[in-house]
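Hey all, quick one. A colleague (J.T.) asked me to put the S-adenosyl-L-homocysteine job into the tracker so the inputs and the structure tokens live in one place instead of scattered across chat threads. No bug as far as I know, just bookkeeping. Sequence used:
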Amino acid sequence: MTEPSPAGPLPAISEAATDELVAWFADRGEPAYRARQVLAGVAAGRANGFVELTDLPLRLRAELGEAFRFSTIDASHVVATDGGQTEKAVHELADGQRIESVFMQYPGRGASAPRTTICISSQAGCAVGCPFCATGQGGFGRHLSAAEIVDQVLWWRRSRAGLLDPEHHLNVVFMGMGEPLHNADPVFQAVRILNDPQRVGIGARHLTVSTSGVVPAMDRMADELPQVNLAISLHAAHDELRDELVPINRKWPISAVLGAGRRFADRTRRRVSLEYVMIDGINDAPLEAQRLADLARGWLCHVNLIPLNPTPAAPWSGTPRPGIDRFAAILRGAGVATTVRDTRGRSIEAACGQLHAQLSRRALGSRVASPELVMVEA
Ligand code: SAH
Ligand code: SF4
């Protein structure tokens, strides 16, 4: 780990405001279009450093490098699975904190274009403490800055040339480590930068923020980012169980969280997704499906059932597929739109915080023991 300089690390280019950069160039007698050139160049993912922004004079590239950090990610290690279609990166930040992002590719079929989903972290660790989640089990580290959030996406863009194809559908989901709405200001700023057509340029409909239910920030999101998708991690259909599985429920119980979900759907006309991790013998009984149907019926939402990825610190396992299908059938029978999410990346423990937990027990850079995993230095 490198010691930050006494003045602190340089400002990160990926969160620099356009007008500040315009002023920076004006101080050097340079026109405003230079700022837009740099921000678009960094976001495009073709350059690996300021020196590769070849439409700028060499002198300006050198000066940018002295004034700004090109990326807040110092080192990354990648693990691949699903024949290379799912990859997970552990990123090391300037202060040695480690965060994760996951890259999932879905090949195009027939007339449909190939899709990629990048799952990014909003915090190092998480304070909510859901007992089934590896991130929750590890506790809270710190908030991420907007640049640290955006840089996860840019890191994959630089690493995977196929993402540069304008036809490629890229989705970004805030479903990695951390509770995004506990870190709402940097997360909202990162969403704006990711969405900005002059910068990363991902359409708002392709951006999803997932929350365990921070009610005031959900209402803020409806006001400030009405085009972005909202997912609510529900996981239980009555408060006694949700108090245990998603402890923030003791502050904002189901009625409050789903009230905010309904307000979001009413204001934005966007369908809210209710995430429900299926835990064998804990939340998967037919009665729970009926309760969930009662909560989900009659407003603009759909249910996403996710088999639990087991974690070492919890005794639970995922509901077997027939049980998930029975649960889904009850919901559908009650008129609730329901999908069953696939188990992408199970062998690299792609759920929230799991690879990080595994790697924390070893030095980053050593090989992961399982023979099906490929460690790639990147
Ligand atoms: N903190 C936010 C976003 C990150 S978690 C939230 O909870 O919504 C992203 C999703 O992964 C959540 O729905 C979470 O419940 C789920 N998840 C966490 N641990 C999991 C596990 N072991 N197996 C399956 N899904 C898990
Ligand atoms: Fe935090 Fe989400 Fe994990 Fe719960 S599931 S501990 S809210 S990251």
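Adding what we noticed when we looked at it: The first strand starts at residue 73 and ends at 81. Residues 126, 132-133, 175, 179, 210-212, 233, 275, 277, 306, 308-309, 311, 351-352 surround S-adenosyl-L-homocysteine (ligand 1) (CB under 6 Å).
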